[in-house]
Specification:
The structure is a single chain. The protein has 120 residues and is an alpha/beta fold. Strand 1, helix 1 and strand 2 form a beta-alpha-beta unit. The protein has a 5-stranded parallel beta sheet, with helices on one face. The protein has one domain: Rossmann fold, CATH 3.40.50. It is built from 4 helices and 5 strands; from the N terminus they run βαββαββαα.
Length: 120
Amino acid sequence: MVIGVDGNEANVVKRVGVSVYALNLLRYFKRQSKKNITFKVFLRATPLPDLPKEDRYFKYEIIKAKFLWSQIFLPFRLYKKKDIDVFYSPAHYLPRFCPVPQVVTIHFSHKIFLKKIYIS
């Protein structure tokens, strides 16, 4: 299985919140990668030096775009090559169109389900 990952949240100099989460996920994915589970991490820019290093089962692919990266350029690339089985975004957004199943993490959703606690 080839898992595509949006790595942009982790590929920033100053990391807080979701960026720290995304970096730790990439580190975990790197440790879990093997012959039958490989990861392709999609980025807008060259990976920063503290991101996990590439190897045979964990690779980066740079898709350069200054705007609409997740809505135009990434989906175009995914449709063009069709080389992943599922796409995962550790942030709160996904491409509107994608040729494979998608998974997203929605952070801070507890506020939606626990409104009484947060409404004063």
